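Supplementary Data S3. Sequence and C-alpha cells for construct A.
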Amino acid sequence: MRIYFSPSFPKTQDYSIIAMIHYLGYSVARTSSEPYDFAYMWDDSTYVTPSEELKEIAKKKKVLNINCTDISKIYVDKVFKEISGYGSLIDPSSYQGKCIKKYDQNGKGGGEIITCPLHNISNTDGSIYQKFIETNPKGPQLEYRVPIVMGSAPVVFEVYKDNPETVAGKLIKNQMKHSITLRETDAIFSKKEQEQIIHFCQYIGFDIGELDILRCSDTNRMYIIDANTTPTYFNMLNRYWNPLEKRKAIAVVAEKWEEQLKTLIPNFQIA
C-alpha cells in the first residue's frame, strides 16, 4: 500500500502513524503524480479546509479525515453533548465549583484549575471553561486515550497522570504521566458508550486518530474532551509504555487499520 499525505505529511518519527506504516510495510508517495492507493488529509490545525486537490482525489479514492474539519474543544463538546445529552463545558459566571480554563484550539498548551463562579470575565484569548472531572479522587488522574480506526475503537490506552491539583501552579502542563497500560475496549466502555464514541467520530468525520476520554468517578459518566488527528502516543520519548505492551498496541491498531482498508480498496496489495 502506498499513501499520499496532503497538505502536509508526518515529518518525524514522533507520529503514531509512522509506527503503523513501518509495522505494515507501507510506503508513501511524495506527490500526487506518483502512484498511490489512498490519501490522508494530514494537518495538525484545529480548523482545516480541504484543498481542491484532495477534493478531486476524493471523487476517485479514499481520503482519510477529509471530512474532519473542526476539532476545537467547543465543537467536540457540542457534538458529544448532542449524542450523550450532557457535556463538559460550563459558564464560569454561574457554575459553582472547580473548572479548568484552557484554550479552545488544539496544541496551544495552557490549562489551569480555577474555582467558579468568576466575575468580570474578559475572554479575549480564546479560552474555554471545562468543569473539573474527578476521575480518581484517591490518587493520580485517570485518562483514556482511545485510538479510532475507520469506525472502530480496537483498544484503549489507560493513562495515569499527576492529579492536576497537586502540581505546580495547578497547571495542566506540569502534569507528568505515571504509566500507560493497554486495555480491552470492552473492559473500559459499555456497548452503548462504544456506540456513542463511534457515532461521535462519524459525526465529525474522524476516520483515524485518537480521542481523549475521561470518566467521572462520582457519576460514572464518560466525557469525550479532545480529538487528535495527528497523534504521537507511539513516539520514542513517551517512555511510560511497557515495551512489550507498546509493540502489542502498535500491532493491534495497525492490523485493524489494514483490515478496514481491505474493505475499501479494490485489489488490495501491500507492495
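Construct B, processed identically:
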Amino acid sequence: MRDDRTRPASLLEDPDEMRRSGYRVDDLNRGIQDRIVRSGFAMIASTRLRGRFALRLCVLNALTTEDDVMRVLDRVLEAGRELC
C-alpha cells in the first residue's frame, strides 16, 4: 500500500503553479539534482522527457529496498520545497 510520501507536493506536480511562483520546472529539477548529488545521499541522473529536464533514478543494486527508494523520493520533495 502506498503512503502519503508517494504524493508529490502540489508545487512540484503542477507546472502552472510552478510558473506562477516564478520557478521553471527545468531549473527546479536541476537544482534538486545538484543538491542531492552534492550531498552524496544518492545519484540521480537526468533525461529529457517531452522536451523537459527530468530527474531519473536508476536502481542498480539488487539489495535496494522500497524504503531506500522512498527515502530518495523524500529527499527530492524536501529539496524541491527548499528551492521554492
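The chain is about 50% helix and 10% strand. The longest strand covers residues 45-49.
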